[in-house]
Write a structure and sequence with these properties.
The chain is of the alpha/beta class and 422 residues long. It folds into 3 domains: 58 residues, no CATH class; 78 residues, Up-down Bundle (Four Helix Bundle (Hemerythrin (Met), subunit A)); 169 residues, 3-Layer(aba) Sandwich (Rossmann fold), CATH 3.40.50.410. Helix content is 38%, strand content 16%. It is flat.
Amino acid sequence: MALQIIDRRLSGKNKSVGNRERFLRRYKTQVQDAVRRAVNDRGIRDIENAENITIPKKDISEPLFQHGQGGVRDTVHPGNTEYLRGDRIARPPGGAGGRGGQASDSGDGEDDFTFTLSKEEFLQLFFEDLALPHLLRTQIGDNPEWKSHRAGFTHDGTPNNLSIVRSMRGALGRRIAVGHAPRRELAEKRQEMSVLERAASRDDAAITALAAEIEALERRLGRIPYLDPIDLRFRNRVRVPVPSSKAVMFCVMDVSGSMDQARKDLAKRFFILLYLFLTRHYDKIDIVFIRHHTQAQEVDEDGFFHSTETGGTVVSSALVLMHQIIVARYPTAEWNIYGAQASDGDNYNSDSTRCRELLADNVLPLVRYFAYVQVVEEEQTLWTEYLRLEEGHANFAMRKATATDQIYPVFRNLFRKQGAPA
């Protein structure tokens, strides 16, 4: 049985939900631009809060209809004690047009429009045109997902599934089929009655008998119901198993000694955006957090973002651990696997070469997409080695983000939907 929910909650005082939604739809581009500008000024802990958005007045101005010069029209001036009908009204001096006092030359004098986006509205606009690249449906597992599909029509069902058009079509067809023979016989009887009534020698007995037959046929046609229970058709739905789209994201962050607090903040800002995006858009997704210096370890969310542990740099340890976790817990036949790595690129020369080999041979063949973000401008050995991977692997991408205002453009570029503008 289908369930329909109607939200009859009253809007807040002096607020209109419908008007607000229409406003956001109409000025969606301007609001999205304001949201992207606002996120660059936020701290890491405040990135998912509500936001006051300011839109320039010129961006939401609309055309106005006004009376042009000339023409003949009647005008009523309230409180008129000076003019009579037919008098000519002089033009206002100086071409002011009667629009109040002298204007200032310091600007247009109009304030920008400011309003508050809720947390849900902010995040919706923030991540609207982003998606995990190459996300595929995997096989049906032991606990399949079920989806309701239309499966024609049935004679039984609930009133809310009643198909009125299909039912009336069936009723019309039944009435035509059942009443076809009586209507044809009735037409023949009426034609015969017309012949008898125009005959020169009137046979009253035959006319009376024929009238009785016509009346019986009309009663027979009148007993055909307009809508019969056999005509009712209900929309039928069946539940079928569908493949699930299980996904796992590996977040790999460098916390070595070369990653000072500013660089760590950039990396954390990127991963917080990624975390919010994944948890908001995907119901069934695992997130694996890996921190590394000379050694890599899998940690929870709190340890990933707030731990102060540091040390030397061996990037390959994180890629080895990532591969081990994939093999042990996430078979590629059932999971869409993704990876995101953030680092300053500082690494031992020999280890950078090993990182490229690990990605090319072990990690990239198993993942749908792997993104690398470097938080410094200088091209370290790791960046140089990774450049060799980008040319031959479509599922690998690398970008630089060296300032807070570059984080969101880089994030958007890495995870935008296919076909969405860059």
